[in-house]
Design goal:
Number of helices of chain A: 16
Largest sheet of chain B: 8 strands, mixed
Largest sheet of chain A: 5 strands, parallel
Oligomer: heterodimer
Distance between the termini of chain A: 34 Å
Number of helices of chain B: 10
Strand content of chain B: 25-35%
Largest interface: A-B, 50 and 58 residues
Strand order of the largest sheet of chain B: 4-5-3-12-13-14-11-17
Shape of chain A: globular
Helix content of chain B: 25-40%
Chain lengths: 491, 370
């Protein structure tokens, strides 16, 4: 029996489609639904919650964890279950297309291809983790800070026996505390920031006493475990034959540049490291919404009004995908965006009169994001032989060579070197490659100057698939006669 | 002065410079990043228009010897090519087209399914007939700009990247190219080699040549174990398939995405992508085990009769157009080299593809001021 292409694909039309079921997308879904609009909420994880509110597999769930992240996630999941939000987990969204009547979202799910059509689309896709490359960063035993939180939170697995926790931002303390709580050993914390950096952020941090107290709790745990704490240091090498055995760190100056002296080797079988988060802008870039470069918010961000409207009618962004500001800001933004969607759709909103002004940044989230920002001087110090694109094994040397051979914009660097052409499609290396080119153009590692170069350089063209998908799942079963082959080309 | 830094413009500029001319090349973006850098890199006779076969054979040989004359072969692989037929209708089309291409000089023979499977064990057992050509192969098209940039600079061409020409003016003798960054550049001769943009470029000289913009989708997989060793297409020409030495498989065939001359190929049609991939997996069943890594679309120019626009611009001395060469990645090298040879006055050479046949008005709407 033959099945035409169109009827084999499950297609659903709704008022609002939301990609990403974390704090922003989940909250937006509930708020949109309460305004009377129909909603489909699509996510790649098995359960809603996103990265921060990630659920435990039921086999591991003792119900004892009452951390704020867990409570937030459980509350969201319960609310979604009680609602009639059409909630779809385990879906990989691979294509988003703008059509006359709105947006078309294509996903691969457990039962194959699905298509969602909606006049309004909320992108709540969160962030990617950033690692500034150093020799040995691709060794087994080296993982991301955010990846470590998944191991700890969702699988109750320690990243190693003896762990070095390194990088920048609040995840350092959170992950260290998580490892200690789970009974692991932390060999050292290596923080790019110094006491002065944290002190200058303290005013903003204290605007959220509950969250600040949580941080103090983490620090207390760290102090009582007598974990060595290296401030204003960074990792300059991960060493080991087939897996990690030791981590070399160096002091950094105020700009984040590692210094030639004072290196320390720390024995460890695990290094978890992260240099902040980058907004996941694949969908908004694919749709060619306007973007702007803001180092403090993680890099390229869609241009948004105060209620999360992008430059494209019907396209909205909620949460960290619009700029990294953390979970509380994401939840608030999810609600605000949902209200704007409802208002724009002329449906009765819970609260009307959302702001047209540009976003006011919550001080707390902005201060922490500032601490985790990418430092040009640290990127500038990446040694020549270091792999920058781990999918295609492209080194700093090869990228510099491409630049001197005349590749003067990011897409041409990709064409000259293959960097960014692998399975991650540049999610990991894109920010670093653009920073290297900007450093070359700027001729200095001064942040403001490099920022201007970054804004000119832009970012890699976004393309489908938004996530790698198996061809088998994509094409399903078919008969040859049903492939809609266009007429032959002229002879 | 050459406007357009794709494969055609770059090749013409290179041979003109080597022939002793002072050459300036204007490109609105980086070199070879539109059709020349985003195409499937296929160097096949079995998708080539009959009239282009002699040029395609010559172009294939030029890619093969590119290390000698260009300095970099853009990763060229020479291999067999197969064009498959799965239905009676396709078998008829295949055998008809193979005959005509063979008459034009392409060494294409027809194989039974068993013979075809000896050439390419990975193909589907469901085929009825296969066209086979030993002159086939592919390159990594994205490296084209890298190769040409070095060669052009070494040949002394003044390469102006990121320099869109805003217009061209005919002077008493020669032409002026006006661009924002370079101001006015004067030269005796002009070549318009702007791909799908030759239509607006010719309009600068008052010549109306309609050019259709094709938006060709391409799909590449993640690396996988070897599953094929030839270039595989189908009778209708709507599939091109090959596996690179790094394990990735590139799927093309000209399925249409969304875009235009102004905005580029900015979006892909999911149905067309799925159709294209189904066709590919039908031809090479083991491809089903791959993962889709990336898909994109590139623009291809097409004239009303689907044949190239290569030759003098009517009514404008020393002005030439060079574009709209279907599957031009193979034959374009030869065509642009012959155009350069013609401009250098090196003998008659083969007949190219003058555009008089395509113009709605044989008399240009504006002529040079005297």
């Amino acid at each position: 029996m033959t099945v035409p292409l169109s009827s084999q694909r499950a297609t659903r039309s709704v008022d609002v489609a939301i990609v990403g079921a974390g704090p922003a997308g989940g909250t937006a879904a509930l708020t949109v639904r309460s305004s009377g609009l129909s909603v489909t909420l699509i996510d790649e994880a098995p359960l809603p919650g996103g990265q921060v509110w990630r659920a435990l597999p039921t086999t591991l769930d003792s119900g004892n964890d009452r951390s704020p992240d867990r409570v937030g996630g459980d509350t969201l999941r319960a609310a979604l279950s009680d609602s009639d939000v059409d909630w779809r987990s385990d879906r990989r969204v691979w294509s988003v297309l703008r059509e006359d009547q709105g947006f078309r979202v294509d996903a691969i799910g457990p039962s194959g291809s699905e298509t969602f059509l909606a006049p309004s689309l909320i992108v709540a896709s969160g962030t990617h983790e950033r690692t500034v490359p150093f020799p040995g960063w691709t060794l087994p035993g080296v993982t991301g800070l955010a990846a470590a939180t998944i191991l700890l939170k969702a699988q109750h697995v320690l990243p190693g026996q003896r762990v070095v926790v390194a990088g920048a931002g609040p995840l350092l303390a959170a992950v260290t505390a998580g490892i200690l709580k789970a009974g692991g050993e932390v060999a050292a914390i290596v923080d790019l920031n110094g006491s002065l950096d944290w002190l200058s952020a303290s005013g903003a941090i204290l605007t959220r006493p509950a969250l600040a107290a949580r941080g103090v709790g983490w620090i207390r745990q760290i102090v009582s475990a007598r974990t060595p704490f290296y401030r204003r240091h960074c990792v300059i090498a991960a060493e080991g034959d087939t897996e990690l055995s030791s981590v070399r760190i160096a002091p950094v100056d105020a700009t984040g540049a590692p210094q030639p002296n004072g290196h320390i080797d720390i024995a460890a079988d695990s290094l978890v490291i992260g240099n902040g988060l980058v907004p996941a802008t694949e969908i908004t870039r694919l749709l060619r919404a306007e973007h702007k470069f803001d180092r403090n918010l993680g890099g390229w961000c869609p241009v948004l009004d105060g209620a999360g409207r992008t430059s494209i009618d019907g396209l909205y962004v909620a949460g960290d995908g619009g700029g990294v500001l953390g979970v509380d800001a994401a939840t608030v933004s999810g609600r605000q965006v949902a209200e704007a969607v409802a208002e724009d759709a002329k449906a009765p909103a819970g609260r009307s009169g959302s702001s047209q002004s540009s976003r006011t940044l919550p001080r707390f989230g902005a201060a922490l994001a500032h601490l985790a920002r990418l430092r040009p001087a640290q990127v500038s110090a990446i040694p020549a032989e270091t792999v920058v694109c781990r999918c295609e094994d492209v080194t700093r040397n090869e990228i510099d060579a491409a630049i001197s051979e005349g590749a003067d914009e990011v897409n041409q660097i990709k064409h000259f070197t293959r960097c960014g052409m692998g399975p991650c499609q540049g999610r990991f290396c894109g920010d670093i490659v653009a920073e290297l080119l900007a450093l070359d153009r700027a001729g200095t590692d001064d942040e403001a100057t490099v920022d201007r170069a970054r804004a000119q350089i832009g970012s890699w063209t976004a393309r489908v698939p938004l996530r790698p998908v198996a061809l088998d799942a994509l094409i399903g079963d078919f008969d040859y006669a049903d492939i809609p082959v266009p007429p032959p080309a002229p002879l | 002065m050459v406007i357009g830094g794709g494969l055609l413009g770059a090749t013409a500029a290179l041979f003109l410079a080597r022939g002793g001319m002072r050459v300036a090349l204007f490109e609105r973006g980086p070199l070879c990043r539109e059709a020349s850098g985003t195409n499937a890199g296929t160097l096949t006779m079995q998708m080539t228009r009959v009239a282009l076969i002699p040029f395609a054979l010559e172009g294939h040989a030029m890619w093969k010897s590119a290390r000698d004359w260009l300095g970099h072969d853009v990763g060229m692989v020479t291999c067999d090519g197969l064009s498959l037929a799965f239905t009676e209708q396709e078998a008829e089309l295949l055998s008809d087209r193979a005959t005509k291409r063979r008459e034009a000089g392409a060494p294409i023979s027809l194989l039974t399914p068993e013979e075809a499977q000896e050439v390419e064990p990975g193909i589907s057992p469901d085929i009825l007939l296969a066209g086979h050509c030993p002159v086939d192969g592919f390159t990594a098209a994205y490296e084209t700009g890298k190769a040409f940039r070095v060669a052009l600079l070494e040949a002394g061409v003044a390469v102006y990247e990121h320099t869109p020409a805003s217009r061209v003016e005919a002077e008493d003798v020669g032409y002026s190219v006006i661009s924002e960054s370079q101001g006015t550049t004067r030269g005796r001769r002009l070549i318009l080699a702007g791909g799908v943009w030759i239509e607006p470029m010719l309009a600068w000289l008052g010549v109306q040549l309609p050019i259709k913009t094709l938006v060709n989708q391409l799909v590449v997989t993640e690396r996988m174990a070897p599953i094929m060793r030839t270039v595989v297409g189908i009778a209708s020409g709507l599939l091109s398939l090959k596996q690179y030495s790094n394990g990735t498989v590139l799927i093309g065939g000209g399925w249409q995405g969304i875009g235009n001359r102004e905005e580029g190929g900015y979006a892909l049609r999911p149905e067309a992508l799925i159709g294209n991939v189904r066709l590919a997996c039908h031809a090479i069943p083991a491809l089903r085990g791959a993962r889709l890594a990336r898909a994109w679309a590139g623009l291809e120019a097409e004239t009303d009769d689907a044949l190239p626009a290569v030759g003098p611009v009517p009514g404008h001395d020393d002005a030439y157009v060079c574009g709209s060469v279907h599957s031009g990645y193979t034959s374009g090298l030869a065509i642009a080299r012959h155009l350069a040879a013609h401009i250098l006055g090196e003998g008659p050479g083969p007949e190219l593809f003058p555009i008089d046949r395509l113009l709605q008005h044989t008399v240009p709407t504006s002529t040079r001021e005297t």
